[in-house]
Design brief:
Length: about 625
C-alpha cells in the first residue's frame, strides 16, 4: 500500500518531499510485479550486447599492428592463418588471411550486437508498457472511487492528464532511465578495466572528467525538477480548458463567447509554451556544458596518448584502441548525465500520479463495516443533521426527519434550500458534519457504502446518460436485466413510446451525455433506469421538472405502482408531482419549516399554503391521500 510517510493529499499541487530515487523505486515495485523473469532475461541479453560492443575496436587494432605493422598476432590468430588452417587453401599470404578474418570479425560483432539489442529492447519495452498499463488501470480505478468532495475541487481535465500522460513516468524511469543507466555503468566498468590494463595514467585522466560531470548533474537536479513540474502543470491546465469548453460548447456558442474562450485558451497555451521553453533552455545549456567537458577529456587523452607512442611506450594499434575506448567511454557517461534528467522529469509526473493515488476517499467503509441487513422496506431517519460543503456556510442546520417504511415523503422548498444535499447525504456522497442517518436503525456510516447504495435507486436532478445505446443506459444499474424488464421499466417511466419511434429502437446510440435526446426524454430514461434497479428506497430529485404536463400525469400514475412496498422520497418544485405523498416537508434555508399532510399544511396557512395557492388557485390540485 501507499507508504505512510506521504502526507495527506492537498488539492492537486502534488508537492511531495519524497526523494526522486525512492519515488521511482516505489513506483517500479508497484507496477513491475510478475515481471522479474522478463526483466532478468532482457537485462542479461542487453548486458551481453554491451559486452560484445566492447570488442568493437579490437579488429582495427590488430589490422594496424599485425596486418599493416610487424607486430606478431596472438597465438590463436597465428594458428588460424598459417600452415594447417583451411584458410590457407584460399589465401597463400597469411597476412591477407588475417585481414580477411578480422574483417569477418568486424561484421560478426555488428550482427551479434544488433540482434541482441533488438531482442532485449523488445523484451524490456514490453515490460515498460505493461507497467504503464497497470498504473493507468490502478489510477483510473482509484480515481472513480474518490468521494465527490474530491471531484468538486479537481478539474476533470487535470485528472484526465494524470491518467493519460503522467502514467508514462514508469516507462520513462524504466526504459529511458534505469535500464540505460545499468548498461552504461556496465560498459563504463568494462572500458575502465580494459583501459587500465593498457595504460593506467591515461585511464585516470580520462575518468577524471566524470567528477565535474557528476557535480553538474547534482547542481542541475533541483532547477530541472522545478521547471519540469511547472511545465506539466501548465499542460494539464490546457487539457482542463479544452475539456471545460467542449463540455459547455452549447453555452459557449449560445452566448457568443468563442472569442473569449480562444483568448483564455491562448493565455494558458502561452504559459505552457514559456514553461517548456524555460525547461528546454536549461536542458540544452546543460548539454552544452557536458559537451565541453567531454571535448576537454578527449583533448587530454589524445595529447598524452600520442606522446606515449612517440616515446615508444605504446604501439600505434594501442593508440587506436585507446582512442576508440575513450570515444566509447564518454558515451555511457553522457547517457548517465541525461539519465538523471530523464528520471527527474519523470519524477514530476510520478509525483502528480502519487498525489492522486494517495488521495483517500472522505467517504469510505469503516474498518468494522458490514453489509446492511437486507429488508424489503426501510425506515429512514435523519437525526440532528448539520452539513456544509468545503467549510463554507452551513447548508443543513440541525435537521431531523423520520420517514416510516413504505411511506412516500415529499420534500419541497425553494432552490438552494438543501433538498438535493439531503439526497446526497443519504447516498453517502458526502458525510454530514454533525448528526447521523439511520436505515432501519443502522447508522449508514457503520455499513458498507456498496451495500447502502445497493438499497437505493435514484433519479438525479440532472440525468446522467452515457455514450451508448438506450438499452445499456437503462440497464446501467442492473446489467443482467432481460429485455422484457428493460422494456417494462421504460413503459413505467413513460419512455417506451418515444423509444419505439426511434429508428434504432432500444439499440439507438444516444451520443455523449445523451445529446440526441430532449431534456424530458433524458429524464425518462434516467427514471426507467431507477425503476429497473427495483431497490427498496427510491429517491427522485425533481423528476418532473423537464416533463410536460401530460407526461407528468403518465409518470405519476406509474409512480403509484412503483411506490408500493418501498420508501420513497420525492423532491419537487411543482406541487402537482407530490400529490401521492403521505407527508410533505418544507425545507427552507437548511431547516424544516413545516411538516405534515397536505391538508394539515394547507390549514396552517403558511409557506406551503402560499405556494399552493400561487400554483393552483385556478385548478385545485387533486389530492389522493393525506
Ligand atoms: N458540490 C457543492 N459544493 C459546494 N456547495 C454546494 C455544492 N452543491 C450544492 N452546494 C450549495 O448548497 C446549497 C444547497 O444546494 P442544493 O442541495 O443543491 O439545493 P436544492 O436542491 O434545494 O436546490 C446551495 O447553496 C448550493 O450552492
Ligand atoms: Mg436540487
Amino acid at each position: 500500500m501507499i507508504p505512510s510517510l506521504f502526507k495527506r493529499f492537498t488539492t492537486g499541487d502534488g508537492q511531495h518531499t519524497l526523494g526522486t530515487w525512492k519515488l521511482s523505486v516505489w513506483f517500479l515495485r508497484l507496477c513491475g510485479t510478475g515481471e522479474s523473469t522478463k526483466i532478468t532475461v532482457g537485462l542479461l541479453v542487453l548486458l551481453l550486447a554491451s559486452g560484445v560492443a566492447l570488442l568493437q575496436p579490437w579488429p582495427l587494432k590488430l589490422v594496424v599492428d599485425s596486418v599493416l605493422g610487424t607486430h606478431p598476432p596472438t597465438t590463436l590468430l597465428n594458428n588460424l592463418t598459417t600452415v594447417d588452417s583451411p584458410l590457407t587453401t584460399f589465401f597463400t599470404n597469411p597476412k591477407i588471411a588475417l585481414l580477411f578474418l578480422l574483417c569477418v570479425g568486424i561484421l560478426l560483432i555488428q550482427v551479434l550486437m544488433g540482434g541482441m539489442t533488438v531482442m532485449s529492447t523488445y523484451i524490456l519495452v514490453a515490460v515498460g508498457l505493461r507497467m504503464v498499463f497497470r498504473l493507468r488501470c490502478r489510477l483510473f480505478n482509484h480515481l472513480q472511487r474518490l468521494s465527490l468532495a474530491f471531484h468538486d475541487t479537481t478539474t476533470v481535465g487535470d485528472s484526465l492528464y494524470r491518467v493519460t500522460w503522467d502514467t508514462y513516468c514508469v516507462q520513462s524511469w524504466f526504459n529511458s532511465g534505469i535500464i540505460p543507466a545499468l548498461t552504461a555503468s556496465f560498459t563504463l566498468v568494462g572500458i575502465g578495466v580494459i583501459m587500465l590494463s593498457l595504460d593506467w595514467v591515461l585511464t585516470l585522466v580520462a575518468l577524471a572528467i566524470g567528477i565535474p560531470l557528476i557535480l553538474l548533474i547534482r547542481t542541475l537536479d533541483q532547477p530541472m525538477t522545478t521547471r519540469s513540474m511547472k511545465f506539466h502543470e501548465r499542460e494539464s491546465t490546457i487539457s482542463s480548458r479544452v475539456q471545460e469548453t467542449l463540455t459547455g460548447i452549447r453555452a459557449v456558442q449560445a452566448f457568443g463567447r468563442e472569442q473569449f474562450e480562444s483568448q483564455r485558451f491562448q493565455n494558458h497555451a502561452h504559459d505552457s509554451l514559456m514553461a517548456n521553453l524555460r525547461l528546454t533552455i536549461l536542458q540544452s545549456g546543460s548539454q552544452a556544458v557536458v559537451g565541453l567537458l567531454l571535448a576537454l577529456g578527449t583533448t587530454l587523452v589524445v595529447w598524452i596518448g600520442a606522446s606515449r607512442v612517440l616515446s615508444g611506450h605504446l604501439t600505434v594499434g594501442d593508440v587506436v584502441l585507446l582512442v576508440s575506448y575513450v570515444a566509447m567511454l564518454y558515451k555511457p557517461l553522457e547517457t548517465l548525465a541525461y539519465t538523471a534528467t530523464t528520471i527527474q522529469s519523470a519524477a514530476a509526473s510520478g509525483r502528480r500520479v502519487l498525489a492522486l493515488l494517495e488521495a483517500t476517499p472522505d467517504v469510505r467503509d469503516a474498518p468494522e463495516a458490514v453489509g446492511i441487513p437486507a429488508s424489503s422496506a426501510y425506515a429512514i431517519s435523519f437525526e440532528n443533521i448539520s452539513f456544509q460543503y468545503n467549510n463554507e456556510r452551513p447548508v443543513l442546520r440541525n435537521l431531523s426527519l423520520e420517514i416510516p417504511p413504505d411511506h412516500c415523503m415529499a420534500i419541497v422548498g425553494p432552490s438552494g434550500a438543501g433538498k438535493t444535499t439531503l439526497a446526497n447525504l443519504l447516498l453517502r456522497f458526502y458525510d454530514p458534519t454533525e448528526g447521523r442517518i439511520l436505515l432501519n436503525g443502522h447508522d449508514i456510516r457503520h455499513v458498507t457504502v456498496q451495500s447502502l447504495r445497493d438499497q437505493v435507486a435514484i433519479v438525479l436532478q440532472e440525468p446522467v446518460l452515457f455514450c451508448s445505446t438506450i438499452r445499456e443506459n437503462i440497464a446501467y444499474g442492473l446489467p443482467s436485466a432481460s429485455f422484457e424488464d428493460i422494456q417494462s421499466a421504460a413503459e413505467s417511466a413513460g419512455a417506451h413510446r418515444f423509444i419505439s419511434a426511434l429508428p434504432g429502437g432500444y439499440d439507438t446510440e444516444i451520443g455523449e451525455r445523451g445529446v440526441m435526446l430532449s431534456g424530458g426524454q433524458r429524464q425518462r430514461i434516467a427514471m426507467a433506469r431507477a425503476f429497473l434497479k427495483d431497490a427498496p428506497i427510491l429517491i427522485m430529485d425533481e423528476p418532473t421538472s423537464a416533463l410536460d404536463t401530460e407526461t407528468e400525469q403518465q409518470l405519476l400514475q406509474a409512480l403509484d405502482r412503483l411506490m408500493k412496498g418501498r420508501t420513497t422520497i420525492i423532491i419537487a418544485h411543482r406541487l402537482s408531482t407530490i400529490r401521492k405523498a403521505h407527508r410533505i416537508m418544507v425545507l427552507q434555508d437548511g431547516q424544516i419549516t413545516e411538516q405534515g399532510t397536505h391538508h394539515e399544511l394547507l390549514q396552517q396557512g403558511q409557506g406551503y399554503a402560499r405556494l399552493y395557492h400561487t400554483q393552483f388557485d385556478n385548478h385545485p390540485m387533486p389530492i389522493g391521500q393525506g
